[in-house]
Amino acid sequence: MEENAExxxxxxxxxxxxxxxxxxxxxxxxxxxxxxxMPPKYFYDERGSQLFDAIxxxxxxxxxxxxxxxxxxxxxxxxxxLRPDHIVEFGSGTARKTRHLFDACDRxxxxxxxxxxxxxxxxxxxxxxxxxxxxxxxxxxxxxxDYHGGLAGLPPRxxxxxxxxxxxxxxxxxxxxxxxxxxxxxxxxxxxxGLLLGADRVKDAGVLxxxxxxxxxxxxxxxxxxxxxxxxxxxAEFCDTNFEHRALFxxxxxxxxxxxxxxxxxxxxxxxxxxxxxLEDGExxxxxxxxxxxxxxxxxxxxxAGLAIQRHFEPDNGWFSLxxxxxxxxPVTQS
Length: 335
Ligand code: SAH
Ligand code: TRP
Hints:
This protein is α/β, with parallel strands linked by helices and 335 residues long. It is built from 10 helices and 14 strands. Strand 3 (86-90), helix 5 and strand 4 (113-118) form a beta-alpha-beta unit. Helix 3 runs antiparallel to helix 9 and helix 4 (62-82) runs parallel beside helix 5 (99-108). The longest helix is centred in the first third of the chain and has 21 residues, at 62-82. It starts with a helix and ends in an 8-residue tail after the last strand. It binds S-adenosyl-L-homocysteine and tryptophan (TRP). The site of S-adenosyl-L-homocysteine has 19 residues, from helix 3. This is L-histidine N-alpha-methyltransferase. GO terms for molecular function: methyltransferase activity.
């Protein structure tokens, strides 16, 4: 990397201010007894992050390209309205879609610094290096941490902030987690700041089902990769041919549920827990929920956190929402 680019990339660890469980505690609480559940953050080791990227390229997975097309259309409006000094993105991944906002800054003659916040350190490093090379004015301050640990530990920033939470990741939170997270976001926002939230919408069950059961099997590999993470991190003995991927749409709960289903009766030793997991044929481990919103439900989620809706962008087919919201009470000053 050229020297100038290197000097525009820094990395910080974000200390958790709220209690967060580690993989040992999560496995102990979630794997041994039914109902079995592992939090989705463990998907995203280096291989998992690459597989997620591949999911975004599948024919069936519409959210990424739908959200990207929306961003392409509204980026300029958002940048001109907020003129952010900082763009802070939660669960940034490769930051592929975020480039539309940087391009809009470019065109508006604005500069901004970018604070991608993610658990996956390798992804932050690679995407950060690419971004400082692509945008010669961009300062990137990578934030490594778990956003469930709260946002009070973020480094201080002077000036106006645009917060991004894209990809429908809010749907991977339970209702309680989503409310708590938006409260945290609201607490660090000042008048004039904005939150751009991307959320997936309720739609035809067939379209939803296909998006999480792509024909090429990338989503299945992504789901099964969790077992490799458990083997590595917990000295466990999962054999991935003994499990299959299953994702279904639970219409009543308005959510996709993704499971790893045991294909036989089996015992799996988890070294770090010194316990053995007993699974019946067909028993399942919940690995992810992905909630699908109505526009009203999404807006009330934001309003309940004290955030006022400023814009609500959606495509003609209504498949995805991008909502721009701001802290209530404070005037949205525009320069
Ligand atoms: N925003 C990107 C990526 C979405 S995938 C997009 O829209 O395509 C979810 C991202 O959140 C991954 O990059 C993953 O590493 C990150 N992530 C998952 N759980 C996290 C947590 N608890 N704290 C911080 N980042 C997390
Ligand atoms: N935020 C994405 C979503 O809910 C995450 C995701 C997409 C995902 N496909 C997945 C998570 C497959 C696990 C498995 O749509």
